[in-house]
Amino acid sequence: MDELQLLKDELSKRDAEIAKLKMALQEKEKQLSLRTDVTEEALKPLKQVNKLSNESISRYSRQLILPELGVTGQVKLTNSSVLIVGAGGLGCPSAVYLAAAGIGRLGIVDYDEVELSNLHRQILHTEDRVGMSKSQSVATTCHRLNSGVEYVPYHLALDSCNALPIISQYDIVLDATDNVATRYLLNDACVIAGKTLVSGSALRFEGQLTVYNYENGPCYRCLYPKPPPPQTVTNCSDGGVVGVVPGIIGCMQALEAIKIASGIKSSFGQRMLLFDAIDGTFRCVKLRGRQPSCPVCGDAPTITQLIDYEQFCGAKASDKDKAMNILEKEQRMSAKEYKTILEEKKPHILVDVRQPVELEICQLPNTKTINIPVSSLQKEEKISELRDRINQLKSNGDDKVPIVVVCRRGNDSQSAVNTLKQQLLDNNIEIKDIKGGLHSWSKNVDHNFPQY
Amino acid sequence: MEISLEFSGGAELLFDNNKKHDVILPDQKEKWNIKNLLVWMKDNMLRERPELFLQGETVRPGILVLVNDADWELVGELEYEIQSKDRIVFISTLHGG
Q: Broadest EC class (chain A) (predicted)?
């Protein structure tokens, strides 16, 4: 018994010590030589060295003995600066390898804060940093790996005003962003500032990599003079992504940046790497050269200063989904109103327009839900299933048959209401969607309902 | 004429979610080029929402076309004369990260 008490006492003593140590650690982290809230103000020029310290020789010995790199390459790395735009699935792996390799200065731009749904791929953030600035989080983690590198976290959204002052201060820029507008902004800014752009992207099980504006090769606009129609663009939040895919592409971006900075040439100027994780294939394709007609890097450029990229692309410079308002108020119901319908057992048909894989994650407590993915709303076999259900309900009375449409956030459900209305013109129905979708259900009706 | 059509980056979602299609182009008076291949694909392969793949007579912005692993710009774009056994790839550009 005494022994048990002793152990308990010992345990609480140790717990107190751990708490004290954690406090001390937090204090230390605050005092780190990390800059906070850096804006586009000019940095001091990166200190140039012409030889390596003994510590650096030990630290980088395994890459120093490579004849392609050697002391000359390592000195060049130490004297180089890289700006990573996007501290997410691509930015994390590229930052950690650039830091490990001993780049001189590493700038990290991200306006966003860490969320739980980031952690499966944005591997430098941690559970206890949810809510913290992503750029700060990446700088903190990299600093623990290599404190000899100078880290400059920028907690801001890159835009047409701040892009050039920031980019001009770095040697190489990494596009690790997640949206079309910022990709065009970065491209134009890099052409105007004369910087090489190492561009990576990833979605689902695929990744792509190219180095733009490199050795008179093409820029992003040479390849894509016109932005894609916004409805054809999928982000990671809607399309999904396997964490290791941006991991691999981000590592490739770090590798190309290291090659360029150390004087080895990049392999991806005027070439594109296509990675398919399902097939396990890496394919490398030859791209067009720089286009003399390109509006930004061509012979007679018409874009000589940065423009409004959200307007140019017709899309926001973030990958956050925003709530759309397609339907009128009276065509929508709240999650709470739908709860009442369920409780009062009112006859109705619930149409869930998400993909089948999403219904496996969670669905509303209605055993008779019909699943018609928003991409299949035109398919006749799905619609005829719905018609059968309408006719079943109709035989019970003459009133309009209520149809309720639901999706994850309440965007797809609105366009689905419009499509279904057209498809069911000759049926006596009243069709509404649930405003805010399952997210609203989780927030306003059932707090135990999962959000994804 | 036998050729192979491939799709990636999400473009396969418009073609039965199938990344590789071996197709036989029927004999015709005109020579097969990418321009009339796109028309043939629209009539014979593209079941729904053609606007997500085509715009006018060409592919929509954001789709890169490769002929035997080279950017189609290098071989004449729409006017490229298709050869037997060619591999033509349509890649939807990714923007995520």
A: transferase
